[in-house]
C-alpha cells in the first residue's frame, strides 16, 4: 500500500499556497493607518486610538454574519466577484446601526477543494467592500474540507469590528413619540430570502440563471446577484453633521416589522405607511411569479427599504439632504407614536 498523502485526501497544499499568495495584495489595498505590521503573524494587530485624535471613552462594536443561500445563485451563475461585497455589507451595516466607525474585517472561507481562481474572486469582493467602507481586511481563514463540501461548493462568513464613543452610541433608547422614520433605498433583494427566491424562480417557474426577465431588462443572474448596499458613507455623512439620530435599523430578514421593533424602547410604537414608497420592480416580479402574499413579501424581504433612520422631525430635512448628497434615495415612511413596542402597517 502506497504512503498516504494530504493530496490523496483531497487537499493540495501546493494549490493552497498558490491561492494564499494572491491574498496579501487584496489585503494591502484595504490597509488603514492604524494597522500594525506583523509579518507572518497568527493574528492581526490594529491600534485603536487615532493619531492626534484619541478616543475619550471608546466602545468596540462587533457583528458577524454570512451570505446565506445567495451563494447557491453565485455558484449557478459562476460569478463570484460580488458575493464578498454582500458578506461585508451584512456585517458592517449591522454595526453601523449603533453609530460605529468601521475599523477592520475578517473573513472565513470554506471550500470543498483548492481553487485559487475562485478564492481570489471571492476575496476580491471582500476587498472592494472593505475599501469602500474604510475597513482594513485584517486577516481571515481559508479552509479546504473535501468531506464536508462538494467540489464547487463553498461558504463564507465574516465579522466586522467598529468603534464609537460611549456617549455617542445610538441604541434606540432615545426614540420618542413624534420621531420620524426615514427609509433608505435598498439596491434590491440584498442577501435575505434567497431560499424562497430560488424555490420560486428555479423550481416553480423553471427559469435558468441566464434567462432574461423582459419586464426588468436583465438576466436572472444580474437581478439576483446585485450586491447588498453599503450604507457607511451615507450614514457617516449624517453623523458628521452632529445631528441628533435616535435610532437606526438594518432592514434584513424579518422585514421592517421585526427589525424596527428591535430598537424601540418602552412606550414607543412605530407606524409605517407601506404606500409611502414604491418597491423596486424586482419585488413585484417575484411576487407575481410565485403568487406570494403581500404580507409574506414584507415579512421576508426589505421591499426596497434597506436601512432605517429614526430622528426628531426638526432634523429630518438636513438628514435627507446629507443622504441625497451620498446618492442614497430616501423618504419618510412613518412615525413613532405612544404604545407598546412593535410596528403597525397603516397601508
Automatic annotation (TrEMBL):
EC number(s) reported in the record: 6.3.3.1
Enzyme category, top tier: ligase
Catalysis: reaction(s): 2-formamido-N(1)-(5-O-phospho-beta-D-ribosyl)acetamidine + ATP = 5-amino-1-(5-phospho-beta-D-ribosyl)imidazole + ADP + phosphate + H(+)
Predominant place of localization: cytoplasm
Domain PurM-like N-terminal: 59-164
Keywords of the record: ATP-binding, Cytoplasm, Ligase, Nucleotide-binding, Purine biosynthesis
Pathway(s) annotated for this protein in UniProt: Purine metabolism; IMP biosynthesis via de novo pathway; 5-amino-1-(5-phospho-D-ribosyl)imidazole from N(2)-formyl-N(1)-(5-phospho-D-ribosyl)glycinamide: step 2/2
One cellular component (GO) term of this entry: cytosol
InterPro entries listed in its UniProt record: PurM-like_C_dom (IPR010918), PurM-like_C_sf (IPR036676), PurM-like_N (IPR016188), PurM-like_N_sf (IPR036921), PurM_cligase (IPR004733)
Record keyword ATP-binding present: yes
Localization annotation: Cytoplasm
Top-level taxon in the UniProt lineage: Bacteria
Pfam families in the cross-refs: AIRS, AIRS_C
A molecular-function term among this protein's GO annotations: phosphoribosylamine-glycine ligase activity
GO terms of biological process kind: 'de novo' IMP biosynthetic process; adenine biosynthetic process
Domain spans labelled PurM-like C-terminal: 176-340
Family the UniProt entry places it in: Belongs to the AIR synthase family.
HAMAP family hit by this protein: AIRS
Protein name (database record): Phosphoribosylformylglycinamidine cyclo-ligase
Amino acid at each position: 500500500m502506497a504512503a498516504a498523502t494530504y493530496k490523496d485526501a483531497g487537499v493540495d497544499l501546493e494549490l493552497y499556497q498558490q491561492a494564499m499568495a494572491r491574498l496579501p495584495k487584496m489585503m494591502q489595498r484595504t490597509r488603514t493607518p492604524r494597522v500594525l505590521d506583523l509579518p507572518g503573524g497568527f493574528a492581526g494587530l490594529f491600534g485603536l486610538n487615532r493619531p492626534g485624535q484619541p478616543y475619550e471613552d471608546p466602545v468596540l462594536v462587533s457583528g458577524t454574519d454570512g451570505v446565506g443561500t445567495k451563494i447557491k445563485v453565485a455558484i449557478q451563475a459562476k460569478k463570484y466577484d460580488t458575493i464578498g461585497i454582500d458578506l461585508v455589507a451584512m456585517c458592517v451595516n449591522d454595526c453601523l446601526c449603533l453609530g460605529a466607525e468601521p475599523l477592520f474585517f475578517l473573513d472565513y472561507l470554506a471550500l470543498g477543494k483548492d481553487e485559487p481562481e475562485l478564492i481570489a474572486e471571492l476575496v476580491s469582493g471582500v476587498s472592494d467592500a472593505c475599501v469602500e467602507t474604510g475597513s482594513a481586511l485584517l486577516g481571515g481563514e481559508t479552509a479546504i474540507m473535501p468531506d464536508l463540501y462538494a467540489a464547487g461548493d463553498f461558504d463564507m462568513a465574516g465579522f466586522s469590528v467598529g468603534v464609537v464613543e460611549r456617549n455617542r452610541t445610538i441604541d434606540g433608547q432615545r426614540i420618542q413619540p413624534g420621531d420620524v422614520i426615514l427609509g433608505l433605498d435598498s439596491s434590491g433583494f440584498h442577501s435575505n430570502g434567497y431560499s424562497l427566491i430560488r424555490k420560486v424562480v428555479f423550481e416553480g417557474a423553471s427559469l435558468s440563471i441566464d434567462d432574461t426577465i423582459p419586464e426588468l431588462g436583465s438576466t436572472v443572474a444580474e437581478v439576483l446577484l446585485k450586491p447588498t448596499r453599503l450604507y457607511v458613507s451615507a450614514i457617516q455623512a449624517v453623523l458628521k453633521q452632529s445631528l441628533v439620530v435616535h435610532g437606526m435599523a438594518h432592514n434584513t430578514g424579518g422585514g421592517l416589522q421585526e427589525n424596527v421593533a428591535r430598537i424601540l424602547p418602552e412606550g414607543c410604537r412605530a407606524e409605517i405607511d407601506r404606500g409611502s414608497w414604491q418597491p423596486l420592480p424586482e419585488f413585484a416580479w417575484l411576487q407575481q411569479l410565485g403568487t406570494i402574499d403581500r404580507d409574506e413579501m414584507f415579512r421576508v424581504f426589505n421591499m426596497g427599504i434597506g436601512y432605517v433612520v429614526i430622528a426628531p422631525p426638526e432634523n429630518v430635512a438636513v438628514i435627507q439632504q446629507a443622504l441625497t448628497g451620498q446618492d442614497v434615495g430616501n423618504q419618510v415612511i412613518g412615525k413613532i407614536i405612544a404604545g407598546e413596542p412593535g410596528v403597525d402597517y397603516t397601508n
